[in-house]
């Protein structure tokens, strides 16, 4: 889980950052919750990496990294693994929302 994201850090933005930092193909889930009314990021993201090693590499590289003056806080999420993430959001109203609000699942 990544905390302290700027309001403009959409799922597309986070994906581009991950991919350009060498994590392309190393994560299978990405969710950047948005406020349904304002369409702005609420300040955090969930990323599921394909291995603990990839997750640790991300933590080591991004935790406390200042992005536009704000230090990111990276920590393990309560729900671990792709299936746990999907199950956690299964009944969420986000699934009935427009595509921009929904979590993204990627093939590894």
TrEMBL record:
Protein name: RRM domain-containing protein
Native species: Oxyrrhis marina (Dinoflagellate)
InterPro entries linked to this entry: Mei2-like_Rrm_C, Nucleotide-bd_a/b_plait_sf, RBD_domain_sf, RRM_dom
Residues passing through the membrane, by range: none
Protein origin, superkingdom: Eukaryota
Keywords recorded for this protein, A-Z: RNA-binding
Coiled-coil parts of chain: none
UniProt-recorded Gene Ontology molecular function terms: RNA binding
Domain RRM: 1-79
């Amino acid at each position: 889980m990544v905390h302290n994201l700027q309001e403009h850090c959409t799922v597309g933005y986070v994906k581009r950052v991950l991919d350009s930092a060498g994590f392309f193909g190393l994560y299978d889930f990405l969710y950047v919750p948005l406020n349904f009314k304002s369409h702005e990021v609420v300040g955090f993201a969930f990323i599921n990496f394909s291995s603990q090693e990839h997750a640790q590499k991300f933590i080591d590289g991004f935790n406390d990294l200042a992005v536009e003056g704000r230090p990111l806080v990276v920590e393990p999420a309560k729900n671990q693994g792709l299936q746990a993430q999907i199950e956690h959001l299964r009944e969420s109203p986000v699934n009935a929302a427009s595509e921009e609000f929904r979590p993204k699942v990627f093939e590894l």
